[in-house]
Amino acid sequence: MKFLKFIKKKNLLILVTIVIFYIIYTISIRLSFESNGIEIQRDFQSNNNGDPDEKFITYLPHSGFNNQRISMENALFMAYFLNRSLILPPIVFLDGLNHLYSEKTDKLYSKLIQLNHDSNNFTSCKDKRCKQVKFTLYPWDELIDMSWIRERIKITYRSDFNLTSLLTSLNITNEQEFLFLKDEFSYHYKFYDDSNSTTSLDKFHVRINLSDLKKDHHNKRLIHFGSLFSSSRIVKELPESRIFWKNLTRELVPNNQILVEITRDIINELGGQGNFIGSHIRLGDSFFQVNGNKTLDKITQRIINDYIKNSVPNHPNDKLFTLCKDDLSKPNTVPLVIFLATDKDRSDPRIRSFLEIFPCTFTQSDFIYSLEPLKRVINPLGNMNMQKFFAPFVDLLVVSHGVKFYGTEKSTFSSYAQRLHDIHQEDNFVDFIS
Ligand SMILES: Nc1nc2c(ncn2[C@@H]2O[C@H](COP(=O)(O)OP(=O)(O)O)[C@@H](O)[C@H]2O)c(=O)[nH]1
Ligand SMILES: [Mg+2]
């Protein structure tokens, strides 16, 4: 009897322990999915058991971060205009390869499918030469404030690039149930919100009126776009479209808490918001490498002109000034505190010539101490340390708080910095960081 009682007691104890462990486990999983304050439905494939009549759109990301941001913003506009939910792919961060891109959608898919959560490496081959590339897939909500858009559009998250499992999860069993607008070349489709628009196709090849797309394919469960990159991909001429777009571009700002803390710290070191100039000089690859000297000449001239004509306000603090005081006594130097964002380091000869004219120029590497918290940023999808991938965002956020911003032509990084700068200026540099 006693023995039986003991067994019962023991079973009860085991049961209670299991229940406690289960509760702790569930809470910890929830918390890890709520790291930026929002509960995110991470895995689209295993969670789509909702409305069978719900209609979706999706697209394929490619190239650098800002190319992906522009595609994502265009996709949000499409979802709004077509009144569909968006299946949002993650941000693709690469280490060891500048661009993952193919102009043909099928080929791009065959590259992207290599990126899955089982690994953080894939093999990239070009002209029969192959190398290992590190990657991580990162959720947009961890970086950017999506709260405004979430109130207007339903977003579900895709966590890999497997087309078959995407279609299965949507119960799509034959080709008639979805529309796949595959690209055969770069800039294939251009979309128009107003069917009467006379805006030309320019570099694009095929015109699609969004109202026809909406009407003719209203019963399709999914409209799958290829690339949605390019700020001229969608012509927005209807007043409602313009208002929506203006709000969207104003609301989608980086709000990652660690990035915000670091930015605040560096801005303080620089003498506070509005007391320094921000510049982005892109020299690292392709077009920007070839045009590097021109970019530097243009930016230098623009800063000098503004400095002479408009006497740009600049109040360097004493600590910073002691660092550059001696160099400022040399001829042809300009006493402005500049934060320089660049994809090259200070030893690059072109950067060195800029520093000779503007000796009070500082870069991210001058604020090593402020950058410490970057070491703590972990991707909740896959646990990859994000330090390397996040460094450009520190540059982006700091330059956008300069009293003036001078960027590189044709760089989408620069155009985002300019947009953020204009937002801060409109708000009179009231701390975005509060
Ligand atoms: N740290 C840092 N990285 C940069 C800077 N400018 C460009 N990069 C890197 O180069 C990439 C540029 O690609 P993208 O964002 O598509 O902009 P774009 O190529 O200039 O139009 C960024 O994502 C960064 O990884 C910079 O000022 N600082
Ligand atoms: Mg790019």
TrEMBL record:
It comes from the Eukaryota. InterPro entries: GDP-Fuc_O-FucTrfase (IPR019378). The keyword Transmembrane helix applies. Keywords: Carbohydrate metabolism, Fucose metabolism, Membrane, Transferase, Transmembrane, Transmembrane helix. The keyword Transmembrane applies. One of its GO terms (biological process) is fucose metabolic process. GO terms for molecular function: transferase activity. The chain crosses the membrane at residues 12-33. PANTHER family: O-FUCOSYLTRANSFERASE 30 (PTHR36050:SF1). This is 3949_t:CDS:1. It comes from Funneliformis mosseae (Endomycorrhizal fungus).
